[in-house]
Amino acid sequence: MIAYLKGWSTKKDSFFASVAKAAGGGKGLPLIPLSFHGFPESDARAKAAMAVAKRQPKSALVRMLKFRLIWAQYNGARRYFTRHPDRIAMCWNGITGSRRVFMEGARDAGVPRLYGELAPFPGRMQLDPKGVNALSSVPRDPGFFTAWAAGRADRQGDAWRAMGANLTARLSRRADVRQVEADLSDEPFLFVPLQVPNDSQITMFGGWTGSVAGMIAALAEASEALPEGWHIRIKEHPSAKTSLAEPLTRAMSIAQGRLRIDNQTDTFAQVRASRGVVTINSSVGLQSFFYDTPVIVLGEAFFALPGLVRVAGDQTALHAAMAEAESLAFDPVLRAAFMNYLDQVHFPHVSESPDGTIEIDQNAAVQRIKAAKTAVGH
Question: Which domain of life does the UniProt lineage start with (predicted)?
Fold first, then answer.
């Protein structure tokens, strides 16, 4: 049986229920159980979860109260799964705050875990026993994918491109960020789709730039290395609530015309017209593969593999990538193998009904459940 922490949305909870069906049953927990009797690991688990919580308390009192809540949630989750060792823990994302301690309580109780999340491709979801995004179980060795595809025509061809057939730019929640088609073929540029500043992808896996503002500053500095006539084109994330006006204004002053902001043109129109995409670890970087676009990755990402993309691990490497913008490239054989692996193995198919409910492919769900049990020796 699967015990899942309710997501309180039709999409999430129907997805969980669909996975639970493949396991033979499930129980949705409306809240994380609480226990005020600690374990030796309780303080460390709560501190780690607090450090990456999306909403950081602004006062010492609220911080203390939130810490005690997360501490009690860890204890409660661990005791719940200790009492129910036959259950598999499942939740949405599970990287930050309360959901993190829910899953860590399950881990420390010795039960299998499954992490759910949206996938970067239509009609797919993430369901992984290890984690999501940068924490996923996708191998980090380029050689794994070429070996996996060797001698198999179905793993080497273009079948993976079907995943991008219905790919569209994210709808904007901001009046100043739009998705309008435009012709951008007149000048060479690198496109930078910014991410949500407080997203866990940035706060936990942002790498050496440290933040979206840090990335903007790094790009402004590196822009001096661009070939003559080139520029960096930046678009803010359509869901970002944090203003980036100050770091963008400062960066434009430093870049002296080599950095432009385009919040109007459709994201994938800019990808299509660009000579390369630069990202910390945005899904747009991965989606750029459908346009055969070179990608520069600055942060931690499961697709940050040499040959698949260009990995720029510090300011010097970013300068070098900018200087070589005209010759940016990738290994098409590795990309085909990698993307076919994501298509055929990693991202399970899901179907969505008009009412918003999600149903996962049951065979794929069974395989994930087996992988979760194997991971803890069950």
Answer: Bacteria
Neighbours of 23 (CB within 10 A): 20
Joined together, the tokens standing for residue 73 give 């949630």
pLDDT over 90 at 300, yes or no: yes
Residue 286: which CATH number? 3.40.50.2000
Tens-place pLDDT, residues 206-252: 999 999 999 999 999 999 999 999 999 999 999 898 879 899 999 99
Q: Which two tokens stand for residue 160?
A: 């993976």
Domain around 359: 2-119+347-375
Residues 328 and 317: their CA atoms lie apart, in Å, by 13
Which residue, 61, 102, 100, is CA-closest to 80? 102
Tally of structural domains, the chain: 2
Cβ neighbours of residue 255 under 8 Å, at least 6 residues apart? 219, 220, 223, 224, 232
Q: Are residues 221 and 88 in the same domain?
A: no
- A 10 A CB-CB count for 329 gives 10
285 shares its domain with 359: no
Residue type at 161 in one-letter notation:
R
- One domain for residues 327 and 352: no
User: Are residues 299 and 309 in contact, defined by beta-carbon separation less than 8 angstroms?
Assistant: no
Q: Give me the helices (H) in the chain, please.
A: 10-23, 42-51, 60-83, 97-109, 142-149, 200-203, 212-222, 245-255, 267-273, 283-287, 315-323, 332-341, 362-375
What tokens were used for 4?
A: 């899942």
The pairing of strands 26-29 and 2-5 is: parallel
Please state, in angstroms and rounded to a whole number, the distance separating the CA atoms of residues 90 and 129.
9
DSSP per position, 302-329? TT--BTTBEE--SHHHHHHHHHTGGG--
pTM above 0.85, yes or no: yes
Phi, psi of 92, deg, nearest 5: -85, 125
C-alpha distance across the termini of the chain, in Å: 13
